Hints:
By secondary structure, the protein is α/β, with parallel strands linked by helices. The protein folds into 2 domains: 3-66 and 345-448, Aspartate Aminotransferase, domain 1 (Alpha-Beta Complex); 70-343, Type I PLP-dependent aspartate aminotransferase-like (Major domain) (Aspartate Aminotransferase, domain 2, 3-Layer(aba) Sandwich). Helices cover 38% and strands 16% of the residues. It has 14 helices and 16 strands. The strands form 4 sheets. Strands 4-12-11-10-7-5-6 form a 7-stranded mixed β-sheet, sandwiched between helices. Strands 1-2-3-15 form a 4-stranded mixed β-sheet. Bound molecules: 4'-deoxy-4'-aminopyridoxal-5'-phosphate.
Amino acid sequence: MSASRSAALAARDLAVVWHPCTQMHDHETLPMLPIERAEGVWLHGCDGRRWIDAVSSWWTNVLGHRHPRIVAALKDQLDRLDHVMLAGFTHEPAVALAEALVRVAPPGLARVFYADNGSSAVEVALKLSFHYWRNLGRGMRTRFVALNGSYHGETLGALSVTDVALYRRTYAPLLLEPFLVPPPDGSTRRPGESAEAETARCLDALREVLERHGESICALIVEPLVQCAGGMRMYPPAYLAGARALCDAHGVHLIADEIATGFGRTGTLFACEQAGIAPDLMCVSKGLTGGTLPLAAVLATEAIYAAFYAEHASGKAFLHSHSYTGNPLACRAACATLAIFEDEPVLERNRALAAHLAEQLAALAGHRHVAGIRQTGMIAALDLVRADGTPFAPGERRGLRVYRHGLDHGVVLRPLGDVIYFMPPYVITPEEIDRVVAVAAAGIERAAAD
Length: 450
Ligand code: PMP
């Protein structure tokens, strides 16, 4: 496609499409980028340019675009079964995927409920937890606990347990009020306080909420190890292990939102593994289909499932439904994704790539406009700051300048405010990592200049 046809497509788009998470007015100056095809880490624009997808298309594309095994599985599935409702009917991909998820998930997660995106999965988990307690005659449990800076999605229930003002503020009058507790991510570490002491202090805060309000609480919901959309805030596995123990002691569910952290992103298949814990409910999506089709799943313990299993007249059934629940094509893509993790040394390769990324970022450590370099597996982030180490005023939108610079130099970086992060597909090469970091470094220079 030519540059002029690409521009024409962008113009047609702006006449009719309302884009997600976008002030559409920005596109009066920010070009809309029509994409024609993608392969591996590369997005190919309709105008002949190409970009490294260093954010894995909103963290979905873990194995690279159009992975041949996923493409082949989807083509085969298309010739068999497109879709059938999952109430009263089933099919091989839905069953095989549930079996595979139960096999690889932390122990004790035995049942799989499908949804079609991350936020819906969080809605399901919150409703399941509340409904479980209700079925047990404990309907007074109506509250949830979340971490400061949490992000769990943008439907009203998921937004209720989200603590990012940018997304929450406007809708606050419509939302449930969670109890918020601090994660030990270093942001509130006191002078002279060790990381261990910070973790203990944060666990004390959680303990206090559970002691005081435990009887009204359904569940604690966490993003294990990395709070992504809230600014790539990272905390140690010891906190997760402590939180699990506290939830057990107070008879409260632990919901792990592994939507962003799952499927190898933090170095293990699921982040929970690094703490040696199993949640009562676990939400997965994004990387589940290798980034090809929308799908999510909520894994639940047998004990939770059993609380819903009774004669119809008991009224205990979970009547939640989405039309596309367990879509065969999406399930088939997910089966292929899990098979790749099973057959190929994806996690091993990731460790080498993560180490290379760490080396490259270490070179930015002394940069006067860089602070807070942090990394967990294949998630790395840093803060763009003023020369004196203080943050830029948010209204200056310095991070957006890094985004623009990236696009001009063949790399998609999509900062969260002034948090520049790297979350590439796992098929990225060391040389491509070098290029991404070099472009980011130059972008930071340019963004920080007045
Ligand atoms: N939970 C987490 C941890 C997420 O990162 C996201 C998406 N960024 C969601 C939930 C919501 O997923 P979705 O965008 O598919 O609704």
